[in-house]
Amino acid sequence: MTGVAAGPADTGPAVALPAVGPGPGEADWAAAVAAVRGLPADARVLLICHVNPDGDALGSMLGFGLGLRQLGVRRLQATFPGPPEVPEPIRGLPGMDLLVPEADADPAPELVVCFDAASESRLGGLVDRLETAGAALVLDHHASNTRFGGINLVDPRAAATSVLAEELLTRLGVTLDAAIAECLYVALTTDTGSFRFEATTPAVHELAARLLATGIRPGDISRRVFDTRPFGAVRLFGEVLCRARLEPLAAGGHGLVWTYATLDDLARHDQRPYVLEALIDSVRCTAEADVSCVVKQVRPAEWAVSMRSKGAVDVSRVAVALGGGGHRLAAGFTGRGTVEDVVAGIRTELDKALIEA
Ligand code: 5GP
Ligand code: MN
Q1: Mean pLDDT for the chain?
Q2: Which residues contact 125 (CB under 8 A, 6 or more apart)?
């Protein structure tokens, strides 16, 4: 998410994730290091993060890109599918000069590296690079990751994709500088909700310490990335929060709170869609509901849905059943029809998720 407040609640520690497999093994790390070290001097490298990039997707991609640049990789591009718009709060990240629109991305690079994408579908029209590239490396931390690369560095216990990016950079001999560190710090704070979520292990704080030691300024970064929004967005939030509904009996009595925002709401307040990413953080505060949900209109009958759970319900099951994905405590999908259609689908799947759990 790109928000102004907290990022997606990643899944908790290993104890809360019995179904999760192990992270990358030494052979996977060695293969990833070899894929980078073995590149010819003039190799073209394409970095791709998921559609509608959030702080972790963009931050881990640009931080890794700056690290490759330090290693001497010159023909380097970073991109993501869909409209080439980066949300304002993360537009100031170092390494933005690496970004190219999807249409300008190299059609057949020697190496493609994917960041924070749980499945090929998150790569949109860039998915063909998995076939055309000489090698495909995947860095991700979603439990639902489908291991779609030739080399997969996937660790569902990692708090953010940037944790994997930093480890690979270190194994490649890159020195963390302030620019790389700022990218990785934004990624880490986005996905840990500024160190509030369950995945905030001692190792996460140790990584944060290494990043801060480069001299980056956490106060400035947090204010810019999390605590700044246009006045129009403040008023829009007020309106959308006023129409939130609480359904205490939903989700088997654990409770559901939800609201929605339309394209017309955005237009009336002259706001871009990304400002809505932070809304879920205000909605999920509701004490009376385990599950929270924001339904955001993308097109007349198409809605981007964000879901959060406090732990009683695995919302990734609901999201996967409805064609999306994510983590146990933070997930999403694309809904179709009216708002009521979308919420009706969620109610039904919430009940099923409880029965199956
Ligand atoms: P957010 O609500 O912040 O957009 O997303 C929360 C989590 O759900 C993210 O980790 C993201 O991976 C996942 N997610 C959100 N929307 C979708 C979607 O449409 N498809 C898939 N596969 N995952 C999604
Ligand atoms: Mn992430």
Answers
A1: 93
A2: 81, 102
Pocket lining for ligand 1, CB < 6 angstroms: 1, 8, 118-119, 122, 142, 280, 306, 324-327, 330-334
d(CA 43, CA 64): 16
What strand order describes the sheet that includes 302-309?
245-247, 256-261, 291-299, 302-309, 330-336, 325-326
137 membership: H or E segment, kind and range? strand 135-140
d(CA 25, CA 37): 18
User: pLDDT grade, residue 256 (50/70/90)?
Assistant: very high
Backbone angles phi, psi at 166, to 5 degrees: -65, -40
Q: What is the pLDDT of residue 356?
A: 72
Instruction: Answer yes or no: are the C-beta atoms of 162 and 188 closer than 8 Å.
Output: yes
Q: Return the ligand 1 atom nearest residue 191 CA.
A: 10
pLDDT band (50, 70, 90) for residue 327? confident
pTM for the whole structure? 0.90
Q: And the tokens for 214?
A: 């480069």
Residue pair 225/188 in contact by the 8 Å Cβ criterion: no
pLDDT at 180 over 80: yes
Environment class of residue 357 by beta-carbon count within 10 Å: exposed (0-12), middle (13-18) or buried (19+)? exposed
pLDDT band at 143 (very low <50, low <70, confident <90, very high): confident
- Cα dihedral 226, 164, 319, 82 in deg (nearest 10): 70
Mean pLDDT along residues 81-99: 96
Shortest-distance ligand to the CA of residue 327: 1
d(CA 174, CA 70): 7
Ligand 1 atom 23, closest CA: 325
